[in-house]
Automatic annotation (TrEMBL):
It comes from Crepidotus variabilis. This is Aldehyde dehydrogenase domain-containing protein. Residues 34-492 form the Aldehyde dehydrogenase domain. Keywords: Oxidoreductase. One of its GO terms (molecular function) is aldehyde dehydrogenase [NAD(P)+] activity. Gene3D superfamilies: Aldehyde Dehydrogenase, Chain A, domain 1, Aldehyde Dehydrogenase, Chain A, domain 2. The active site is at residue 269. It holds the Pfam family Aldedh.
Length: 504
């Protein structure tokens, strides 16, 4: 196969050229030993967009070797923070220049609306790169007093080395930036494995990495199947750190492989079953807007999706009626249509998974308040669905669905709300709505989640840390805390005055 292809997009009256090779040492190359390809599917039409090279284990070795050489020669501790900052800002400029086409490609391969990809995902990506560009020359150590007459100690925050980065399919561009930006800011090199479902924008971004002027080997992109590329990165003896966003099941496998190989550093951002509490003092109209956003944004394909909403008994019926109308108003359609506020699910597998949960909710006796019926025709579409009359043991209440499916329950007291919210093995996000400031403080403190939203939901900022508790993983992305994930602290003890007597 060639190492680039052109996708015709009749709806946009244009074509988009996409690299299809592996990006290693700033070049798009064929696999060393494999003819395997990955087909990229348009989830709105179920048609194949194109095929890209699928990396083998030997290809992963080549990418890691390229990253190691760059770390030792043209990057790592060999480049100033000022230069790293300049290149990150240049990359942000190029993404901003190409934002519309990147958004269109994201929509074609992932399904999400172009306007959301462009204005939210890519807008945040540009800000993320610029935020970490600002950090690149501000990675500081400490000077520590030991004995002012004879000794001092100081620390250096050094780049950890070669980083394997494994990103998911729900936010292909934004998750790329969350991992790439802090790693490059401190001087690490990268082997990036995008999801096999959505490899196209990562390859397109690789073109911009080269155009920005990053040295060969600093960023390498290796689309591959998870059991091949992901497993090879997690167990590779020359990878110093692996960062993964995805399912808890896969996170366990990555952590096990890291432990059994070279005990590489690991950060995991995993699944969630996030609770969203609505207290009787809340602004119900606003609370319904945020609850609808919490489960419908990105068609529910979000690790922090507010998939369990618990409403105080006294306002349950009123709130549920408002919420139903809000969710009915959302248009789910082709992402290339500006009228669409949500798109199809990413794949047939995900579509079947979500419908399996909807069927399970019906069989277990939950009340279908909205949705729950399949569309006819092409596309992996699932309309927003609400279940009421839920019970704690139901699968739709316990397990992550990753679709626009909401379980709504009731509580009487604040303590009961907290108990229901925390009754999960996950701990990624949580939300609450109340106009009682004291209640907001009490409940936000009691909720077991890495991020808690008060009177809003699912809003993130590049300067605020993000990550999970319990089986939602560990480590932090965004904010200054993300820099810690890619640095190693070296302590240097300097003796300038003490004389050692010998023998002891």
């Amino acid at each position: 196969m060639g190492l680039s292809t052109t996708i015709q997009v009749p709806r946009l009256n244009k074509s988009i050229t996409i690299p299809t090779g592996l990006f290693i040492n700033n070049e798009f190359v064929a696999s060393i030993d494999s003819k395997e390809v990955i087909e990229a599917i348009n989830p709105a039409t179920e048609e194949v967009l194109c095929a890209v090279v699928a990396a083998s284990e030997k290809d992963i070795d080549a990418a890691v070797a390229a990253a190691r050489k760059a770390f030792s020669t043209s990057w790592g501790k060999n480049v100033t923070g000022f230069e790293r900052s300049r290149l990150l800002n240049k990359l942000a400029d190029l993404i901003e220049r190409d934002a519309q086409e990147l958004a269109e490609l994201e929509s074609l391969n992932n399904g999400k609306p172009v306007k959301m990809a462009r204005d939210s995902d890519i807008g945040d990506t540009i800000q993320c790169l610029r935020y970490y560009a600002g950090w690149a020359d501000k990675v500081l150590g400490q000077t520590i007093e030991v004995d002012n007459k004879t000794k001092l100690a100081f620390t250096r925050n050094e780049p950890i080395g070669v980083c394997g980065q494994i990103i998911p399919w729900n936010y292909p561009i934004m998750m790329w930036a969350w991992k790439v930006a802090p790693a490059l800011a401190v001087g690490c090199t990268i082997v990036m494995k995008p999801s096999e479902l959505t490899p196209l924008t990562a390859l397109k971004l690789s073109e911009l990495v080269k155009e920005a002027g990053f040295p060969p080997g600093v960023v390498n992109t290796v689309p591959s199947l998870g059991p091949v590329g992901g497993a090879a990165l997690a167990s590779h003896l020359d990878v110093d750190k692996v960062a993964f966003t995805g399912s808890t099941v896969t996170g366990r496998k990555i952590m096990e492989a890291a432990c059994k190989s070279n005990l590489k550093k690991v950060s995991l951002e995993l699944g969630g079953k996030s609770p969203h509490l609505i207290f009787e003092s809340a602004d119900l109209d606003q609370a319904a807007n945020w609850a609808a956003l919490g489960i419908c944004y990105n068609s529910g394909q979000d690790c922090t999706a507010g998939s369990r909403v618990y409403v105080q008994e006294s306002i349950y019926d009123k709130f549920l009626a408002i919420l139903v109308e809000k969710m009915k108003a959302l248009t789910i359609g082709d992402g290339l249509d500006d009228k669409s506020g949500g798109g199809p699910l990413v794949s047939k597998t995900q579509y079947d998974r979500v419908w399996g949960y909807i069927d399970s909710g019906k069989k277990e006796g939950a009340q279908v308040v909205l949705g729950g019926e399949k569309r006819k025709g092409k596309g992996y579409y699932v309309d927003p669905t609400i279940f009421g009359n839920i019970k704690p043991e139901m699968k739709i209440v316990k397990e992550e669905i990753f679709g626009p499916v909401l379980a709504v329950g009731q509580f009487k007291t604040e303590s009961e709300a907290i108990e229901l919210a925390n009754a999960t093995t996950y701990g990624l996000g949580a939300g609450l709505h109340s106009n009682d400031a004291n209640q907001c403080m009490r409940v936000s403190s009691a909720l077991e989640a890495g991020t808690v939203w008060v009177n809003q939901y699912n809003m993130l900022n590049n300067n605020v840390p993000f990550g999970g508790k319990k089986q939602s993983g560990f480590g932090r992305e965004l904010g200054s805390h993300a820099l810690d994930e890619y640095t190693s602290v070296k302590a240097i003890h300097w003796n300038f005055g003490e004389k050692l007597d010998w023998p002891l």
